[in-house]
Please model this.
Amino acid sequence: MRSTWTWIGRRRERGIIAMCIEHLGRIIKVAELFEEMVNKYVERSYDEVKKLYTSIFNTEREADDVKRKIIAELSKGMFHPIDREELIRLVLTSDDIAAYLKAAARQLLLILTADLPKQLLDQCLIMSQKVTKACKLIKDAVINLADNPRKSLELADKVERIEEEVDEIRLKALELVLDICKRIEVSTCIVTKDFVHEIEEASDKCEDVADVIRSIALLTL
Model:
């Protein structure tokens, strides 16, 4: 059964898409701040790392506020049930990206003075850079949903490829984690592993959002 995604051309429904784009803008900001936080950790600028965590925390909260506004707007009716479900999936799954990045940032604070090897940190920095890139592609894909859904599909494919790249880097990072676990405290080892895992989870959520975008785009063709 085909849903009524033709509504995407009407003013009120385009307003919802605009709110989703605003929400994604906050998530991109979280990703950029996290990337900078990892970079400052590499530089051993620990005071800056702490400040950036606060900024991540506040920006993720702002994203939550936009998310709640979108859901409140969707609850007012006037939407086909399938359309509403797809939009809620888009918003909630996108929000998970920021949540995982905030969790990774928190893990990084826990190992602030662990003196992790630069080789491992460099791998984590590359992962974070790719998550930021994926978030920006997601925003562009949503922007194109109304007028160029085929472009949205192309961008969603690029996000999927980034997730595959991050997964490969994660394996390299985990090899390094296992190596350093031979000579560091167990607690530090566990937190470091969790830190890498949270970044990879954020990447996985980017791919999940890309799948939602594909679903919406196909219904608009």
Notes: Helices lie at 11-42, 46-74, 81-110, 118-143, 149-180, 186-220. Residues 1-5 have pLDDT under 50 and may be disordered.
